[in-house]
Amino acid sequence: MSAFRFLQSSDLHLGRAFGGYPEGIRHRLREARHGAIARLARAARDGGAGVVLLAGDTFDAETPAPETLRQALRAMGEEGDLIWVLLPGNHDSLAASELWRRIASDAPANLRAITSDAPVELTPGHWLLPAPCTQRRPGRDLTEAMSAPTPAGARRIGLGHGAITDFSGEEGAIGIIPPDRAARSGLDYLGLGDWHGQMQVTPATWYSGTPEPDGFKHDAPSAALLVALGGRADVARVETAQFRWTSPALDLLPGEAVAARIAAALPATRARDHLVRLRVTGRLTLAERAALESDFAARAPDFGWFAADLSALAVEALPHDLDEIDRAGALRQAAEALLAEVGDGALAKADRDMAAAALARLYALTQEVRA
Questions:
Q1: Looking at the domain 4-239, which fold is it?
Q2: pTM (2 decimals)?
Q3: 137-161: b (≥16 Cβ within 10 Å) or e
Q4: How far apart are CA 335 and CA 317, in angstroms?
Q5: Strand, helix or coil for residue 205
Q6: What residues contact residue 71 under an 8 Å CB cut-off, 6+ apart?
Q7: What does the radius of gyration of the chain's CA atoms come to, in whole angstroms?
Q8: Which residues, other chains included, contact 207 with Cβ-Cβ below 8 Å and sequence gap of 6+?
Q9: Where are the alpha helices (DSSP H) in the chain?
């Protein structure tokens, strides 16, 4: 039997709102998730695969907006040379009966919606052993169904959605998928969804991760998995993401070439397609801190979204720094009071950090006025 090639992905979360971000980037992020359908199709074709397996959470909610659902189904239908297999996940579980009824009534001919755990023949000799999520928290290991029999000599591909470890950190969680499920159920390959980063569990068990990132938790570029199933599973990573979410860190000291350090820490190309959350630690003089904030303000519009956390950056105020604010009067008194709070070990760290930020801002404002 020749090798069988397919593309595995999961957690598209179509329709995610991205609340908390400005409307401009929210719109672009939503569009990028929809565009992942075409990028997955291209990755499948380029890799010689005719089947795309989506291991759950194709939709972000049990009741996606009608246009979100319709446009996703149409986009898959337009990739008519590929078979798309949709598995219910915890966000779009079978409990959302109206969603799956709408999918069944409006699905293109090349889409297979998996609404039971019965084995499905994908191509001759290759059987899918699915474990669709019955509800958001099933409370049991649904992948036990993957032990169902298939014809002798068939290649067995499991597709599930859930945790092989308790990603939430809660003790005593139930419904955990055993890491050796592939061996227990005689699977040649097990593709899983739920974890948004790509992860190998065993040589034959993988989380594909989301094809388009949706947060700062996973730093590597999002990708799908191209699987060639022959004597064993040959798995290759195929990048699919439009956006990158990065969380660089900078630890700074007075006298350093701060601008050069910043430039080295930030993406050098396609800044518009990067969301950056920069954390700065260490200490700087008031003048250097003001220059740092000015540098960030100048760079921020280059990026899709940019934020710098300076809460852990201490200020090193020299006598002449306070003179730069004012030599006497109310401003000088305010600066001295803030500086005293910065060095007051009896205060909580959060209060000291707030005083340092206020002192730095006061310095910057006075320099702007004089400029």
A1: Purple Acid Phosphatase; chain A, domain 2 (3.60.21)
A2: 0.87
A3: ebeebbbebbeeebeeebbbbbbbb
A4: 10
A5: strand
A6: 34
A7: 26
A8: 10, 192, 193, 194, 195, 197, 198, 199, 200, 201
A9: 23-46, 66-78, 97-106, 181-184, 258-265, 286-299, 319-325, 330-342, 349-370
Strands lying side by side in the sheet with 189-193: 120-123, 126-131, 155-161, 189-193, 205-207, 199-202
pLDDT band of residue 231 (cuts 50, 70, 90) is confident
Q: Which two tokens stand for residue 255?
A: 């006298």
Query: What is the helix, strand, coil percentage profile of the chain, to 5?
Result: 35, 25, 40
Helices and strands, number each (H, E), in the chain:
9, 16
271-327 pLDDT, tens digit per residue, is: 999 999 999 999 888 888 888 988 999 999 999 999 999 888 888 776 677 777 777
The set of long-range contacts for 63-68, using a CB threshold of 8 Å and a minimum separation of 24, is: 63/96, 63/98, 63/99, 64/14, 64/15, 64/92, 64/99, 65/15, 68/14, 68/15
Strand-strand pairing, 189-193 and 155-161: parallel
Specify the amino acid at residue 195: W
Amino acid letter for position 124: P
pLDDT of 163-184, one tens digit each? 987 555 444 455 689 999 999 9
The CA-atom distances, in angstroms, between 278 and each of 51, 247, 368 are 39, 5, 24
Question: Which of 127, 126, 130 shows the shortest CA–CA distance to 113?
Answer: 130
Sheet holding 4-9, edge to edge: 111-113, 83-86, 51-54, 4-9, 223-229, 233-239
Mapped onto helix, strand or coil, the DSSP state of residue 188 is coil
CA–CA dist 147, 129 (Å, integer): 8
In this structure, what token pair is assigned to residue 205? 């068990």
Q: Identify whether the C-beta of residue 66 lies closer than 8 Å to the C-beta of residue 21.
A: no
Q: Give me the residue label for tokens 């969301």.
A: 275
Q: How far apart are CA 39 and CA 224, in angstroms?
A: 10
Domain range list for the chain: 4-239, 247-370
CA dist 344 and 132 (Å) reads: 58
Q: How far apart are CA 349 and CA 303, in angstroms?
A: 31
Residue 297 has which token pair?
């303000």
